[in-house]
Design a protein that fits this description.
Elements (H helix, E strand, L loop, with lengths): L1 E4 L5 E2 L15 E4 L37 E3 L1 H7 L3 E6 L9 H15 L3 E5 L3 H13 L2 E7 L5 H9 L3 E5 L3 H14 L3 E3 L5 H7 L1 H10 L5 E5 L4 H15 L8 E7 L4 H6 L26 H11 L2 E5 L1 H15 L5 H13 L6 E6 L7 H5 L12 H8 L2
Helix pairs in contact: 2-3, 2-6, 3-4, 6-8, 7-8, 8-10, 11-12
The structure holds pyridoxal-5'-phosphate (PLP) and zinc ion.
Pyridoxal-5'-phosphate (PLP) binds next to helix 3, helix 8 and helix 12.
Length: 391
């Protein structure tokens, strides 16, 4: 396997530390000249070790992957869908899909022999980076947008002993700074999703879906922020198809929040490029104005006949409650964005639809409590209890 530029196709060895192409500065991806074979074993991310650019025997792991693909018939009936499955990535060790990328990225970091790893984060990446760095015995540095990280995610970065820097700016500012820091300081290894090793781990979610369904779904819907995950899924589906392990490729639908929708707006001709200033949404995980992997995401959307779409914050919160109350799945606001889009559009899709729930709802309890839910009150008596329950 080698690293290859998506634009000029320059190749670099796996052990060369680069975050973008040295020749043209575009994004890198990992490519393999050997066709994939179905010689997988075990469960989780490392089941797919033959398709990963890291040594599974030295894996920095917390048992990530092998998350549930939950068939949601009640919700599907409301939506008029033949079959809806939710891939619940909140079941990962730190509660989000980032663990898949981090196990591979951190394993590579250890192979490189670096002392420190770093990221910019809307919260989940910092939680995963901090946990896996602790596991690997490495120092973790995380840059977060001041005041805009959900409570549970911040608690995770703190408890795993990361050095946390609140930036007086947004995620895009933090991303720019950490990229510059790691590019100018060889001792600090960048583990954002611009790092192609991260996306290699994340592609395994697509493999799991294909193995569970026997083929790719007809449509995959997922939240779209920095655009790493949609790129990783698309790479995973293409690799399985190239290996003859599935017959079709899914349509890829990325869902952005209406206040942070540079890619959706670009596709509608409302912007000249995939970036905007001052993104805003209650779904803080996808509060991103300058998605680093926009070019890979556009390829996934265009090549799959997909789209980037938007939902409002109110639609996101309603979908979060709907999914939790109807199917028992409590996801964080950004993870409810795909459900919000399905609820509003009720698209006619004959085959299976998979909605990716990227993060656990417990990470951001404020989002639920901000709706000021009414809690019943009772004296500590049976009479009092019967009265409030009206039973
Ligand atoms: C819960 C959650 N969903 C979705 C995303 C967006 O993923 P990506 O940035 O790879 O597009 C993130 C990114 O932080 C996230 O934490
Ligand atoms: Zn290049």
């Amino acid at each position: 396997m080698t690293q290859q530029c998506i634009q000029c196709k320059a190749r670099y060895p796996l052990t060369q530390v680069l975050y973008t192409c040295a020749a043209c500065n575009d994004l890198l991806e990992i490519i393999s000249d050997a066709p994939a074979r179905n010689d997988f074993g075990g469960a989780g991310v490392w089941r797919y070790a033959p398709l990963l650019p890291a040594d599974s025997r030295r894996a920095v792991t917390l048992g990530e992957g092998a998350t549930g693909l939950h068939r949601c018939d009640r919700l599907a009936a409301e939506l008029g869908l033949a079959a809806l499955h939710v891939k619940n990535e909140g079941e990962n060790p730190t509660g989000s899909f980032k663990d898949r990328g981090m196990t591979v990225g951190m394993t590579h970091a250890r192979t490189l022999g670096v002392q420190s790893v770093a990221c910019a984060s809307t919260g989940n990446t910092s939680a995963a980076l901090a946990a896996y760095a602790a596991r690997a015995g490495l120092r973790a540095v995380v840059l977060i947008p001041g005041g805009k990280v959900a409570l549970g995610k911040l608690a995770q970065a703190i408890v795993h002993n990361a050095r946390i820097v609140q930036i007086n700016g947004n995620f895009d500012d933090a991303m720019r700074l950490v990229h510059e820091l790691s590019s100018s300081n060889a001792g600090v290894y960048l583990l954002n999703s611009i790092n192609p090793f991260r996306l290699e781990g994340q592609k395994t979610a697509a493999f799991e879906i294909c193995e569970a369904l026997g083929d790719a779904p007809e449509t995959l819907v997922l939240p779209l922020g920095n655009a790493g995950n949609i790129s990783a899924y698309w790479k995973g589906f293409r690799e399985f198809r190239a290996a003859g392990l599935i017959k079709r490729l899914p349509r890829m639908i990325g869902v952005q929040a209406a206040g942070a929708a540079p890619i959706a707006e670009f596709l509608r001709g409302q912007r000249t490029d995939c970036r905007m200033d001052d993104p805003n949404t209650i779904a803080t995980a996808i509060r991103i104005g300058a998605p680093v992997s926009w070019k890979k995401a556009l390829a996934a959307i265009r090549d799959s006949g997909g789209d980037a779409v938007t939902v409002t914050d109110d639609e996101i919160l309603a979908a979060q409650r709907k999914l939790a109350a109807t199917e028992g799945l409590f996801v964080e606001p950004s993870s409810a964005a795909p459900i919000a889009w399905l609820l509003r559009e009720k698209p006619q899709i004959a085959g299976p639809v998979v909605a990716v729930a990227t993060g656990n709802g417990l990470k951001d309890p404020d989002a639920v409590l901000s709706a000021k839910p009414v809690l019943l009150q009772s004296e500590a008596t049976m009479d009092g209890l019967r009265r409030v329950l009206e039973l």
